[in-house]
Amino acid sequence: MAEVSTAAADQKQVVLVTGASGCLGQHLVKHLQERDESVKEIKCLDIKPYQNNLQHKTEKPMTIITADIRNERAVVKALEGVDCVIHCAAVVDTGLWPDVKTMNSVNVDGTQILMDAMVELNVKYLVFVSGADVIVGDDPIYYGAENTTPVPKRHILAHSKTKLDAEVLVKEANGRQLSNGKDSLHTIIMRPSLIYGEQDQHFITAVLKLTKQQSGVLRQLDNVFVRIQPTYAGNAAWACLRAKDKLREDKSVAGEEFFVTDDTQILDPFEFLAPYVQSRGYKLSVRAYPYWLFMLVMYFVVLAVRLLWSVYPIELPKGLTQPTLRYLCNTYFYNRTKATLRLDYEPIYGYEESQQKSLQYYKRLFL
């Protein structure tokens, strides 16, 4: 088993994980408990009470804090005695009418509240978990790197813009003087690609729910050359721990953003999803439907729903929207060289192990 070496010769850290009850948050807490010798205590902050769903060891003291990231008083209290924050708390809404106001409030304003409190409490290190989606638009991305991939004029998914706005705040806060007058805030931005694995509630879980609603058949779409590059949650969490330690050792990484991927195969999305769909006893359609035709049909369906909504509210299957289909039927994959060279990040789970762990979760998941 790989272990994180002590990041510095000084005392061990108290780490606060925001969004600890989410998919990535759960894996972060597990790694902090089982793989990180530089940590002496873990604080878990989330609007939902943290539960040990991954059945990890609990040898290190843990404090469970149930609070909203926008609650300034609760955030200040949670930061007492903390050395480093890994900030995962966020709202992701991929519905037909995404709640942009709430996403801005949590993802952007909540991040600012957190950083202001860190300055007040003299907490020096922030690992901000963003996502590769911040640079995803209508154009395909082939081995996108941090310095070669521009921000799109229009984001496909509504939450992506809010995460990008939060990134701007995090970069601007890097180097901000703390209230003690002698130390500075050091921030780093992590951009994992689409996350899958145990505790996932958005990606594969949403596809499985949609498939169940469609009589157990996931209809394949054909849009010529389409590839996706998901990242296993355990590896994304590991990258955040490497960033945490590197931030203490090497201040040159502060204020930088890093794409995070692993050895999950770059596949057609339906080829990637097939094992998970089949593990539930579902199947993929034999025929692949033309993407353009499906989107045309969706356009008229959504138009009808909008026109009838005030008279007869109709709920489309969650995740079945034009933006999510555009996202799924395009090509996005990334280059993690920067994270490898500057953060010493290498995936700790190979593709087969990641897939097997994930299959066990999705197979038993209550939909």
Provide an overview of this structure.
The protein has 367 residues and is of the alpha/beta class. It has a domain at 13-202 and 231-266 and 333-359: Rossmann fold, CATH 3.40.50. 38% of the residues lie in helices and 17% in strands. It has eleven helices and 13 strands. The strands form four sheets. The chain has a seven-stranded parallel sheet, with helices on both faces. The chain is globular and about 60 Å long. The two termini are 33 Å apart. Mean pLDDT is 93; it is low at 5-9.
Could you give the topology of this structure?
Blueprint (H helix, E strand, L loop, with lengths): L12 E6 L4 H12 L4 E8 L15 E5 L5 H7 L5 E4 L12 H22 L3 E5 L11 E4 L13 H16 L12 E7 L2 E2 L7 H10 L3 E6 L8 E2 H17 L7 E4 L8 H11 L3 E8 H18 L13 H7 L3 E3 L2 H7 L7 H14 L3
Parallel strand pairs: 1-2, 1-4, 2-3, 4-5, 5-7, 6-13, 7-11, 8-10, 9-12
Helix pairs in contact: 1-6, 3-4
Structural class: alpha/beta
Give helix and strand order, one letter per element, not per position: EHEEHEHEEHEEHEEHEHEHHEHH
Major beta-sheet overview:
7 strands, parallel
Named at the architecture level, the CATH assignment of the domain at 13-202 and 231-266 and 333-359 is 3-Layer(aba) Sandwich
- CATH topology of the domain at 13-202 and 231-266 and 333-359: the name is Rossmann fold
**Rg (C-alpha, Å):** 21 Å
CATH class of the domain at 13-202 and 231-266 and 333-359: Alpha Beta
Strand content: 15-25%
